[in-house]
Design goal:
Mean pLDDT: 83
Helix content: over 70%
Distance between the termini: 40 Å
Oligomer: single chain
Length: about 270
């Protein structure tokens, strides 16, 4: 129980970098700060929408709410693509490091997993395409006017936030595995980190699966079974879903409490 409660708290903290990254990207693309604090609340509220079948309700809700705060549709669309690209790139980088330190055994078991680190190039490629498209087409903008933004605001700062998310969320998964009683070494912990990044990626890319439910659990069981045993791997994957749902809910409640506190302070 302690590992589950602690994992929920850790995952809730991991949600903050995601909100900060989206706020940074959107403000940079729009070119003007319009009530940026409202963006954090919008992100927290919209996160619960990802559990609705279709896996797009959170994006649609976020878009509608942020447009009501004065952000352009073009900036919102590009911010979503940057967010997706950044998360996939960060997952690829985390997987690369995990593969490097986990030894060759994992590659022998799952040779196709080497494709995941290639995702590290998604964000830079999209950034270059976004910046070069207007020049190639001879236009000064793509679609509606979008603020030019800076490379740090669109690449480096969000990328750091996304890496922090994977480190914290992966740490919550590691915490759950330590409670199984299985003795693990450093290489095994790297495999667990790789398992989270890979399961998150496949769950994210699977259309229609709300928050990757079913997909992430299946991938976690598949990768963790050689380390923990099938029964323990199933238990860990189910408990980790409890952790992620509880973490999203706690993050939302914390942001709601923060918003009420700020409102009362202004009165």
């Amino acid at each position: 129980m302690f590992s589950v409660v602690s994992g929920i708290a850790i995952y809730a903290m991991a949600c903050f970098p995601l909100a900060w990254a989206w706020q940074t990207i959107l403000v940079s693309l729009h070119g003007e700060r319009r009530r940026p604090d409202r963006l954090l609340m919008t992100y927290a509220r919209s996160q619960m929408g990802k559990y609705i079948p279709g896996n797009v309700a959170h994006i649609a809700g976020r878009h509608i709410a942020a447009s009501g705060h004065g952000y352009s549709n073009s900036a919102l669309i590009f911010s979503t693509v940057y967010e997706m690209s950044g998360l996939l790139s960060a997952a690829g980088l985390v997987s690369s490091v995990a593969l490097l330190f986990s030894g060759a055994a994992i590659l022998e078991q799952f040779p196709h997993i080497v494709a995941v680190p290639l995702l590290a190039f998604v964000l830079p490629i999209f950034y270059l395409a976004h910046r070069l498209a207007p020049r190639i087409s001879g236009k000064s903008h793509v679609g509606e006017p979008v603020g030019s933004g800076s490379a740090p605001a669109l690449l480096f700062l969000p990328y750091i936030h996304y890496l922090l998310f994977f480190l914290l969320a992966g740490g919550a998964l590691v915490l759950l595995t330590t409670q199984t009683g299985t003795t693990l070494n450093t290489q095994a912990y790297m495999v667990i980190g790789l398992a989270f990044a890979t399961s998150w990626t496949l769950g994210f890319l699977t259309p229609g699966a709300p928050s990757g439910i079913g997909v992430r659990e299946a991938v976690l069981v598949f990768i963790l079974s050689p380390l923990l045993g099938s029964a323990q791997a199933i238990v860990v994957s189910v408990l980790f879903r409890v952790v992620t749902v509880g973490g999203d809910l706690l993050f939302w409640l914390l942001m709601e409490a923060r918003g009420r506190y700020r409102s009362e302070a202004l009165c």
